Amino acid sequence: MLNFDLSEEQQILRDSVREFAENEIRPVAEKLDEAEEFSLDLVKKMAELGLFGMFVAEEYGGSDVGYLSYCIAIEEIARVDGSAAATIAAGNSLGIGPIYYFGSEEQKREWLPRLCRGETLASFGLTEPNAGSDAGGSQTTAELKGDKWIINGSKIFITNSASEISEIIVVQAKTGERRDGRSELSCILVPNKTPGVTAKAMHGKMMWRSSNTGELYFDNVRVPERNLLGKRGEGFKQMLSTLDRGRLAIAAMGLGGAQGAHELALAYAK
Q1: CA angle in degrees (0–180, nearest 5) for 238-52-98
Q2: CA angle at 225 for the pair 100 and 120, rounded to the nearest 5°
């Protein structure tokens, strides 16, 4: 028989994150939403609570408490504010995840410690104006010339990509053609401060208004060949795997949001 009870450590985590959400997020959530303001102060506080790198091994700066604990934390944050939960979910599943699961040892040690400390944020460069979330429809290109990738194209609706602490983008791009005529897709790590990268924060959203969402433009962006994530041509698989793991976090957000809505409605009805 399956045991659905939480461990003592998980109960303590749930209580501590709920207390944090009530005391630190709820008092400012409405104001931040109205102003469409991304709060670096909240990011710092969530990082101090250990909400980044929860499934990452300790040798790379993570806490390695596992996906269940990670989802518990997101559920409790989303119960109070979807924007803060989106920051954590995207920062972990979509930003840290691809580097942790597919990156080289050098890439992991270069980027993960700062990301797991919440000092910087990584983003997941998939969605494009004409491709939506279709992982196979990317039109952004990356051409290998010598030992450099030359990247051109754009991305849109990319969470955590255009803030003051956004540091690295996992960009899916067309790197050639396969034998079957379809695009060869690869993922490449592109630092935000690379010349030719433009990141613009998006406003006027209907929800998650105080999370950071950006438009990204790549104009002859040059990065080293070693910035390729995993093997060439495996970008499509990497992106699908990343999305699969990310769905766990989004499900936790949905559950937390429903819980919060139920509690508010119940209190109002009484």
Answers
A1: 10
A2: 40
